[in-house]
Amino acid sequence: MITEEAVQKALRHVKDPELNLSIVDLGLVYDVAIDEEGDVDIKMTLTSPGCPSGPEIVGDAQKAVKLLDGVKDVDIEIVWEPFWTPERIDPRVRAYLGL
Length: 99
What we know:
28% of the residues lie in helices and 22% in strands. The chain is of the alpha+beta class and 99 residues long. The protein has one domain: GMP Synthetase, Chain A, domain 3, CATH 3.30.300. The strands form two sheets. Strands 3-4-5 form a three-stranded mixed sheet, with helices on one face. A two-stranded antiparallel ribbon has the order 1-2. Helix 2 (54-66) links the parallel strand 4 and strand 5 (73-78). The chain is globular, with a radius of gyration of 13 Å.
């Protein structure tokens, strides 16, 4: 059975190509839901509505999660509420960046 932890771990390998930071560390992943059939629904955001890397990030996230054993389908929904701000970045990463 697939777990939220496994999905988060897979998503940690997906990076925002402009910032070269994990989408998990950036706080872009808002919710992960897994049903009994192995379908994974992810709600996430981007750093801005006009993010030119959006399609690449979503595609990379889908590929990373689909590689997990037991995953049948991955649906990623881009949401804008709450709107992303730098305060959503993992505190350790924020400290490393000097934010």
